[in-house]
Write a structure and sequence with these properties.
The protein is of the alpha+beta class and about 600 residues long. Among the domains are: about 150 residues, ATPase, substrate binding domain, subdomain 4 (Actin, Chain A, domain 4), CATH 3.90.640; about 55 residues. It has 22 helices and 22 strands. The strands form 5 sheets. Strands 12, 13, 14, 15, 18, 19, 20 and 21 form an 8-stranded mixed sheet that branches. A 6-stranded mixed sheet has the order 3-2-1-10-11-22, sandwiched between helices. Strand 10, helix 7 and strand 11 form a beta-alpha-beta unit. Helix 6 packs across helix 7, helix 8 packs across helix 20 and helix 17 packs across helix 19.
């Protein structure tokens, strides 16, 4: 590259990293990383399934008496006076509508009585057994390492002197005003956590990562600043030779072998709905709802309390083991099968590590299905706050990227902007003088140009670099404090597609992935809900098909599997971002290399 070319970074020559071909052919030298809010999935591209572990790391505190192991179920958005009222009101509405549904045998469901269930459960007494729990706290008798990851971090004793960190929340870096959650701390946690997991589960030393490539799965609506940090962790701190970032929905399509698909991905913290056409995530169709599996667990906990949950010492917001217990109860007993009605007696055990097991029994009714129906009545989550819904694309500012439109606008001088506006005004005057008949139409055109320029001015940007909603009229495309029901989000996403043909394809291929909707009956109930709210002109011509648990692939691993498949395709061959390119060009290289709009 010549000196002139180096001085003009707008047209860089990007080289293909060495040994990429070998990695693509064999898959042994490509590691696929799918970072989630609750679980981390990683493995070689040649592996049939990824390793999965809790995506958390516990750091040893300098003060040995300080210990903080925070469960993941608690949310600040539920800490308001109306939360319980919202939950119970929405639950009553859901139960009422359940009574209007016919079972497959043509009979109407008979709702269960919360008062009767509470009376029955009030009489339940705990049964303490002589059996000692096989669960044990993480052994720290020989040494206290600087950090502990995964399951070992979850099973730390409350007074162990460690501070647990969850580095990812809602698909972004978990940055907040709390100890250990600064940008640098989160990046360090990711580096240590990912490197340790690769060594523990894949047997690859950190020093050997320079011979490996990395497929990094990212959300469809992504924060560019946070993705830059993740890529810095992968390339600079961990030392991978190259990286290829790709959106989760596109990977889900590859994982199922579908070129046209509407991907509904419910994880623990968020639910994403995106339409994918020919391997491209359609930006207008992207919707992210900030609720997920943990919110269903928390709602189920509230409903159990309403019918006198016999384990009165249960504290899922403060005790990790109690949170795990409620999650286990949710997966074991909750469902979406409208044929499943009536009261059932369930049994569970409380197994504190190293102590005697306590057995409980209780009666539950519609709580098993009502909790899962919160995805259709999101008021049942009891959430209040901002940014509960994201739509379109996350438009954060990138001060390091000279291609970024916000960067150009913010660095443009006032003289340049004044000259641009003056030129438009002179053109308007010249046209009106030469052709008076064209005055009105040309004025309309130039006013539109002026409005566009005004909307692009930095003074009209929000604090997040977004166009001001009052000026642009796109408030619903930026953020909202209103939650959409899952079926409404899917309908809204598909309706953003360009034409009726693409919409029909999406309705016929609605793919459920992630671990938040693994309930019996979800396919048929979601299909019914979508048909119920489908626009009338489409009901006769659209065939709605909901796919889940197909091809014997775990829905939680479909995105990871798609990333592994993607890594061996020729389409990725020239798109790898090498460590050398990253160090030379920084985040500017991402815009040139990735297969989606950056």
């Amino acid at each position: 590259m010549s000196e002139d070319e180096e001085e003009t970074p707008l047209e860089p020559e990007f080289s293909k990293p060495e040994d990429v071909d070998d990695g693509i052919k064999h898959g042994e030298t490509t590691i696929v990383i799918h970072p989630g809010s609750l679980h981390l999935r990683l493995g070689r591209a040649s592996d049939p399934l990824p390793a999965m572990l809790p995506h958390c790391i516990a750091w040893r505190s300098r003060n040995s008496s300080y210990s903080r192991v925070t469960p993941w179920i608690k949310r600040s958005e539920t800490e308001h006076s109306e939360s319980i009222r919202m939950v119970l009101t929405a639950a009553e509405e859901a139960q009422k509508q359940l009574g209007d549904l016919q079972s497959s045998r043509g009979k109407f469901r008979q709702p269960t009585s919360t008062d009767q269930l509470a009376d029955l459960n009030d009489e339940v007494e705990a049964e303490e057994t002589d059996d000692v729990s096989q669960l044990v706290w993480t052994d720290l008798s020989l040494e206290k390492p600087d950090y502990i990851i995964g399951d070992d971090a979850l099973y730390l004793s409350p007074n162990s002197g460690y501070h647990i960190i969850w580095p990812i929340s809602y698909g972004e870096l978990n940055i907040k005003k709390s100890r250990g959650y600064t940008v640098n701390n989160i990046m360090e946690s990711l580096q240590v956590l990912w490197s340790s997991a690769i060594h523990k589960y894949l047997g690859v030393e950190k020093a050997d990562l320079e011979g490996y490539n990395c497929i990094l799965l990212i959300p469809d609506i992504f924060n560019r600043a946070h993705i830059r940090c993740m890529m810095e962790v992968v390339l600079e701190r961990m030392g991978f030779s190259s990286v290829f970032p790709m959106q989760e929905s596109v990977c889900a399509g590859f994982g199922m072998g579908l070129s046209s698909v509407c991907v509904v991905d419910m994880g623990d913290h968020k639910t994403s709905v995106t339409c994918v056409e020919d391997g491209i995530s359609l930006e207008p169709s992207r919707i992210t709802l900030r609720y997920g599996g943990r919110d269903i667990t928390r709602t189920f906990s509230w409903l159990l309390d309403h019918i006198a949950f016999p384990y009165i010492d249960c504290q899922p917001d403060d005790n990790v083991l109690d949170a795990l217990l409620l999650q286990e109860l949710k997966h074991s007993y909750c469902h979406m099968d409208t044929d499943g009605a009536g009261t059932e007696e369930i049994h569970f055990q409380v197994r504190p590590p190293g102590k005697k097991i306590t057995k409980y029994s209780m009666h539950v009714g519609d709580e098993r299905i009502v909790a899962t129906l919160a995805v259709f009545w999101p008021e049942m989550f009891g959430l209040k706050g901002s940014n509960l819904l994201l739509n379109g694309a996350y438009k954060d500012n990138d001060p390091t990227d000279v291609f970024d439109s916000d960067y150009i606008l913010q660095t443009r001088s006032k003289q340049e902007e004044s000259a641009r506006l003056a030129a438009i005004k002179r053109k308007e005057q010249a046209v009106s003088q030469d052709d008076p008949l064209a005055d009105d139409s040309q004025r309309d055109i130039d006013e539109d140009m002026m409005d566009t320029l005004a909307d692009d001015m930095p003074s009209n940007k929000s604090e997040h670099g977004q166009p001001n909603a009052k000026k642009s009229g796109r408030e619903d495309k930026i953020k909202s404090d209103q939650l959409l029901a899952l079926d409404q989000a899917i309908l809204s996403s598909i309706e953003q597609c360009e034409n009726e043909e693409i919409k029909r394809k999406m309705y016929s291929n609605i793919l459920l992935v992630g671990g938040g909707l693994l309930f019996e009956g979800v396919e048929s109930l979601l299909q019914y809900r979508l048909w119920l709210h489908l626009p009338p002109h489409l009901k006769q011509s659209v065939n709605i098909t909901v796919l889940s648990r197909t091809k014997d692939i775990d829905p939680q691993s479909i995105c990871w599997k798609g990333g592994a498949i993607l890594s061996v395709l020729d389409i990725v061959g020239d798109q790898w971002i090498s460590k050398e390119e990253w160090l030379k060009y920084g985040s500017k290289i991402v815009r040139e290399k990735v297969l989606f709009a950056w």
